[in-house]
Write a structure and sequence with these properties.
The complex is a heterodimer of chains A (305) and B (364).
Chain A: E1 3-14, E2 17-28, E3 32-36, H1 43-51, E4 58-63, H2 73-78, E5 79-82, H3 94-104, H4 111-117, H5 133-144, E6 151-155, H6 163-178, E7 182-187, H7 190-196, E8 199-204, E9 207-212, H8 214-221, E10 225-231, E11 246-250, E12 255-260, H9 263-275, E13 281-286, H10 291-299
Parallel strand pairs in A: 3-7, 3-8, 5-6, 6-7
Antiparallel strand pairs in A: 1-2, 1-4, 8-9, 10-12, 10-13, 11-12
Helix pairs in contact in A: 3-4, 5-6, 8-10
Chain B: H1 2-16, H2 19-40, E1 50-56, H3 61-72, E2 76-81, H4 84-92, E3 98-102, H5 106-112, E4 116-123, H6 127-149, E5 155-162, H7 169-199, H8 202-208, H9 213-243, H10 251-275, H11 279-296, H12 311-314, H13 318-331, H14 339-360
Parallel strand pairs in B: 1-2, 1-3, 4-5
Antiparallel strand pairs in B: 3-4
Helix pairs in contact in B: 1-9, 2-7, 2-9, 7-9, 7-10, 7-11, 7-13, 9-10, 10-13, 10-14, 13-14
The chains are: A alpha/beta (305), B alpha/beta (364).
Chain lengths: 305, 364
């Protein structure tokens, strides 16, 4: 596999805080690669080092065969960048903004195609300041494509969007894969990483805690089915992890996730306990295993909240 | 070059669609000028007590009576007798309202029954005053003749307008308001804009593109300089049309000083943007710079009116020199310092602030 991005032993500190603590990974050509983790895990710092906007304190980065740096204009010309929470000149229209950025790069794609691609045809003449969140994010992704880059780096492309707008962007990003682009994206939405990414890297406190394809990660860590149990009384003196089939119980108090190798037996045991009045069940859900569970398993925390 | 042009065009579009910016940059200085102009415009402009200069070209029996007669006219408060040069220069300095020339052969002509011409010089800029003056003098000559000879129509008044350069509060203030506007273009139009764009991460996206700082700065500065020329043209057009301000300098020289002033303050604005960390912080800093400059740099009133202990501060402010340079080249005001010193000081500020900006400017 042709390597587009290679990161080795990357360290970045801000004062006393170590934002990225020695991470290494590679992204192959044509992949959609996800950096996954909660806010503050070091995702943005990592991609900004790759974009050349930040200079690492240690480690080596190579992107498209070059070393990124703030002054590496040749590399910047080949990267498609969407920054987290970035804004544009609010009084310019969608089309004017695309044309402005097109002029900053040595070559650019057809503006009309980009507008069509981002489904912004009706908003072509609308001022950027008047776009909805979803429209603005689609414009940001279209701008990342303006120079027809080999590698796209998208930092939280769907943050703050409603589910519908997020879905629309997912389809947009998947269609890039069809064009043979390499995409490196960050997200703190597990389902997004699962849906989009060929491979993910899970970061926590600046360190890698897991990496691989979503399917492989799930298979590696789970043979069980998660059962979410909500109890009315947190103080119930029952050890749920000793129920039949349960391999692990995560969480405490009122909300517990039981990972069961034999979900039918576990649920029967739970309902017996409930009938006898030992516990009071408020809710019980069976879920498909997801990356969320991998994260929960590895950190003991939910990724959001 | 392509990037520069695209950025410059984008700046123009963005700017002209921003109504608040248009108001502060174009309309506010004009409102300001109209307000000041109407408040201070009628500063004792036309008086009805006349100060008369008399030039007697030859002595004769009639002359003394004539002078006595003049001083008895109720509207005439002062009568000064002097040479033609003395009295005319006093008129130009607005120390006289009119100068009457008494012809040397008055007595001979009166006896011969010939006509005599009394030339009356007056300040053409003061329309009310000179109309009163002329009618008063005509009346006086007619009455004197009647008393002296019993005849009429042989003493003739010949009014001669003299262009006196007036220097009013508004003449002083128009270059001052322009100087203030140029300063605020740099402070708020550059520093304010850049800090806000940095805070909204607009600058970061430009930084992520293969765009050199110099191209980005060049486009922004070019746009602001163009705006400064438009501002100057608008302010001067209103000053001339509404307040009849007389512009004495060449347009090229005026444009040169306007551009130098704009460059100085755009550069100062860039430096502030390089050091300010947040919009709130920069707003406080900008006001700390804006207010003392406005009131201490003598752009609205002469610095002689301010207490002496402030002089060192006054002479440290770049706006003092911009105001002085603009007053000199636009309305021909008495210089505070020679023009080349104004230019040198503004140039020095520009070089220093530009160097600091280049060293410390940050995209984020």
């Amino acid at each position: 596999m042709d390597t587009v991005v290679s990161v080795a032993g990357l360290v970045k500190r801000y004062g006393d805080v170590t934002a990225v603590d020695g991470i290494s990974f590679e992204v192959g050509r044509g992949e959609i690669f996800g950096l996954l983790g909660p806010n503050g895990a070091g995702k943005t710092t990592t991609v900004e080092c790759i974009e050349g906007l930040r200079v690492p304190d240690a480690g080596r980065i190579e992107v498209l065969g070059e070393v990124p740096s703030p002054a590496n204009y040749a590399l910047k010309s080949r990267l498609g960048i969407q920054l987290q929470g970035t804004a544009f000149l609010s009084r310019l229209t969608v089309e004017e903004t695309l044309r402005l950025f097109a002029a900053l790069y040595p070559r650019h794609r057809s503006i009309r195609e980009l507008i069509e691609f981002a489904a912004l045809g009706e908003k072509r003449r609308a001022q950027v300041g008047k776009l909805s969140g979803g429209q603005r994010q689609r414009l940001a992704v279209a701008l990342a494509l303006v120079n027809d880059p080999e590698l796209l780096v998208l930092d939280e492309p769907t943050a703050g969007l409603d589910p519908q707008a997020r879905r629309a962007l997912w389809e947009l990003i998947l269609s890039l894969k069809g064009e043979g682009k390499t995409v490196l994206l960050t997200t703190h939405y597990m389902e997004e990483a699962e849906y989009l990414c060929d491979r993910v890297l899970i970061l926590d406190h600046g360190r890698i805690i897991a990496q691989g394809s979503p399917e492989a990660l799930i298979a590696e860590h789970f043979r069980e089915t998660p059962i979410e149990v909500v109890l009315a009384d947190a103080g119930a003196d029952v050890d749920l992890s000793s129920l039949p089939g349960v391999e692990r119980a995560v969480g405490d108090g009122e909300e517990v996730v039981l990972y069961s190798a034999a979900p039918v037996e576990t649920i029967q045991a739970l309902s017996d306990l409930s009938r006898r009045g030992t516990i009071e069940l408020r809710d019980l859900r069976l879920r498909r295993i997801s990356l969320e569970d991998v994260y929960l398993l590895l950190t003991g925390r939910r990724i959001r909240g | 070059m392509r990037a520069f042009v695209a950025l410059l065009v984008a700046e123009f579009k963005h700017f002209f669609r921003e109504r608040m910016a248009l108001f502060w940059m174009f309309l506010f200085p004009i409102f300001f000028m109209l307000l000041f102009g109407f408040v201070f415009g009628g500063d004792g402009e036309d008086r009805v007590s006349l100060r008369l200069g008399v030039v007697v070209e030859g002595q004769g029996p009639a002359t003394e009576g004539l002078l006595r007669g003049l001083s008895r006219i109720p509207l005439v408060s002062e009568v000064h007798v002097g040479t033609r040069e003395e009295e005319l220069s006093a008129l130009r300095e607005r120390k006289r309202d009119g100068v009457l020339i008494v012809p040397g052969d008055l007595w001979d002509r009166l006896r011969a029954g010939e006509k005599s011409r009394f030339v009356l010089y007056y300040d053409a800029s003061r329309t009310t005053t000179y109309r009163i003056l002329i009618s008063v003098m005509q009346e006086f000559l007619a009455r004197s003749e009647e008393v002296l000879t019993g005849r009429v129509r042989s003493l003739e008044l010949a009014p001669e307008p003299v262009q006196v350069r007036r220097f009013r509060a508004i003449d002083y203030m128009v270059p001052g308001i322009l100087a203030m506007t140029l300063m605020q273009l740099g402070l708020f139009g550059v520093a304010g804009t850049l800090v806000a764009r940095r805070e909204h991460k607009i600058l970061r996206r430009f930084w992520a593109a293969p765009l050199r700082r110099s191209v980005f700065a060049g486009a922004l500065i070019s746009h602001r300089l163009a705006v400064s020329l438009i501002q100057a043209a608008l302010i001067l057009a209103v000053a001339v049309a509404v307040f009849d301000v007389a512009l004495v300098g060449s347009y090229a020289l005026m444009a040169g000083v306007v551009l130098l002033g704009a460059v100085t303050f755009v550069s100062l604005g860039y430096m502030i943007a390089s050091f300010a960390r947040s919009v709130e912080g920069s707003n406080a800093l900008l006001q700390i710079i804006n207010f003392p400059m406005m009131f201490l740099s003598g752009i609205f009133w002469p610095i002689e009116w301010m207490p002496g202990f402030l002089r060192p501060v006054i002479y440290a402010l770049p706006l003092t020199y911009l105001g002085d340079a603009l007053r000199q080249v636009m309305v021909g005001a008495t210089p505070l310092v020679p023009l080349w010193i104004d230019v040198a000081v503004l140039g020095g500020w520009t070089v220093a602030t530009a160097a600091l900006s280049m060293r410390f400017f940050r995209w984020e």
